[in-house]
Amino acid sequence: MKAARITADGLYRAALGGAAALVFVVVALIVFEAARGSGLSIRTFGLGFLTSTEWDPVSEKFGALPYIYGTVVSSALALLLAVPLGIGSAVYLAEIAPRRVGAIISFVVELLAAIPSIVYGVWGFFVLAPWLRTAIEPWLITHLGFLPLFRGYPFGIGMLNAAIVLSIMVVPTIVSISREVLLATPRSLREAALALGATPAEAIGVALTAARPGILGAVILALGRALGETMAITMVIGNTNRISASVLDPAATMASIIANEFTEATTPLYISSLIEIALVLFAITIVVNGAARILVYWATGGRRTAAALA
Amino acid sequence: MSRLVLARAAGHINRRAIWSRIVIAACYAAGAIVVLPLALIIWHLLAKGLPALSLSFFLEMPKPVGEPGGGMANAIVGTLILVGLGALFAVPIGVGAGVYLAEFGRGRFSSLVRYTADLLSGVPSIVVGVAAYGLVVIPMGGFSALAGGVALGILMLPTIIRSTEEMVRLVPQSYREAALALGAPRWKVTQQVVIPAARAGIVTASMLAVARAAGETAPLLFTALGNRFWSTALTKPIASLPVFVFDYARAPYDDWNRQAWTGALVLVMMVTGISAVLRLTVRRVAQR
């Protein structure tokens, strides 16, 4: 059979397959545009772009280190808050809560994920910031001010605020996937543990051990979301190009600097530098998400889908 | 009874029992703490957003600084246009791809499509905005509604693909077998039996993706830009509710800040309200 016969079936399948193949085109276009746009900046600054702390639009010197630092630290702090809480409540929902309560709370937590990021930003800016400024941060400074971590002034806006808002935003991801992974582990594991005389908490520990790859995947996925989160952070982190050990100080992230300065960028090199930051951010999130998806697929046998994760 | 006796007999078992209680209590606490911020956010949205919520918020244009009142009519219409444009790009492609994955997707190509779609859903929305800037804004020579629509379409695509696939997979195998047994060709089976059977699910699942995109701000900042005036032209900058909320929240005017809260409330009602209704519907369809 030299030439494939053209049939209605073949055509139909090809048309749908073409739509599916467009996904590759879209991703390729994103990569292409980010790479093309950042060409000028890459040629001008080379690898020094990633290690320089200077950001001076007037003399056209650009370096991304403060933003890479801001992204990494805000995401790490957010996970520090969100992971224990997320796993704890996933355990509650999957193992302890009555079925109905578990289902209702999971539904509410999923709705938490549907609230637009700008709304978290407004809340963080108008509610959380004054609260941090007048209550939490002064307390931290008086009692824990001997640590470099809590030195400075109570701005309300800054790394701490960003980390709290981020943790609220990523917790649903951790809760809903961890819960599902826990529910997917065989009941017999807990029964066996209990039969051997384990306490309820120890039996849950056994289930958690079995669910570990999936939960790790959930955490990495949450990390991916935290790294790319833009609007909420832009509103509450303060956007200053500074690397500070104190979580009370304002900072900036890769996403927030793009959101904040892109429309103000006037020169080609300025715009190109911002696009290069987008390229770096893209690369980081692709690696993080790629790893997370593989873990989640592996742990749940491919049951989880993007629809449920989004 | 015997458990109690044993626990009293050996102190170390007692310690384990206490420790178990503590761990379980911590899980209860974690469950409560996770729900707390949602309650707080909803409370503040209602407390600060409701007072300025009125019919004129939906029907009137923004007023200049200093003049009280006014609304965000142009932003609400703008958001509808942007989301409509995005859906126009994303729904046909996404549903086509989803049906392909569910009906013909067994090979390596399909796994790769699935994986790529999942990766795409993880791309930060700001990066999608930068890409749309290069793809549409630069060639067209300016910010436009079209560019914003493209950015939102890209964001909707992965969700539509994967949820369509899921919904089509729920159609019972016997439908396909019955149609094939009656002599229908494969494409007719899919087009006239499987897709109609899955239609309700596909529509709600796609709507879910569309509603989610309505709340996106970051990809619109330098594609659709924003506009204080009435505009429905696809080649001009256009206002949108999320960008309006962002601008009004950052403005140094109390009146604007109040309106930002109201805008945020409207946005949440739009997005979360639609999501909640649709999620319940999807669940019912899935359980059938």
Give the SSE map.
The complex is a heterodimer of chains A (310) and B (288).
Chain A: H1 8-37, H2 39-45, H3 48-51, E1 55-56, E2 61-62, H4 65-96, H5 99-114, H6 117-144, H7 159-184, H8 187-195, H9 200-210, H10 212-228, H11 231-236, H12 254-261, H13 268-300, H14 306-309
Antiparallel strand pairs in A: 1-2
Helix pairs in contact in A: 1-13, 2-13, 4-7, 4-10, 4-12, 5-7, 6-7, 7-10, 8-9, 10-13, 12-13
Chain B: H1 2-9, H2 11-49, H3 55-59, H4 73-104, H5 108-122, H6 125-140, H7 145-169, H8 173-181, H9 186-214, H10 241-250, H11 254-287
Question: How does this model look, in words?
Answer:
The complex is a heterodimer of chains A (310) and B (288). With 310 residues, chain A is an all-alpha fold. Chain A is 75% helix and 1% strand. Chain A has a two-stranded antiparallel sheet with strand order 1-2. In chain A, a hairpin with a 4-residue loop joins β1 and β2. The longest helix of chain A has 33 residues, at 268-300. With 288 residues, chain B is an all-alpha fold. The relative contact order of chain B is 0.14. The model of chain B has no long low-confidence stretch (mean pLDDT 88). At the A-B interface, α1, α4, α5, α6 and α7 of A face α2, α4, α5, α6 and α7 of B.
Salient structural properties:
heterodimer; A: 310 residues; mainly alpha; 14 helices; 2 strands; 1% strand; flat; B: 288 residues; 0% strand; globular
What is this entry, summarized?
The complex is a heterodimer of chains A (310) and B (288). Chain A is mostly helical.
Q: What oligomerization state is this entry in?
A: heterodimer
* Portion in helices of chain B: over 70%
C-alpha Rg of chain A, in Å? 23 Å
- Alpha plus pi helix count of chain B: 11
In sequence order, what are the helices and strands of chain B, one letter per element?
HHHHHHHHHHH
Report the sheet with the most strands of chain B, covering strand number, pairing sense and barrel closure.
none
Distance between the termini of chain B: 45 Å
* Strand residues, percent of chain B: under 5%
Terminus-to-terminus distance of chain A: 45 Å
Class by SSE composition of chain A: mainly alpha
The residue-averaged pLDDT of chain A reads: 89
Low-confidence runs of at least 5 consecutive residues of chain B = none
Name the beta content range of chain A: under 5%
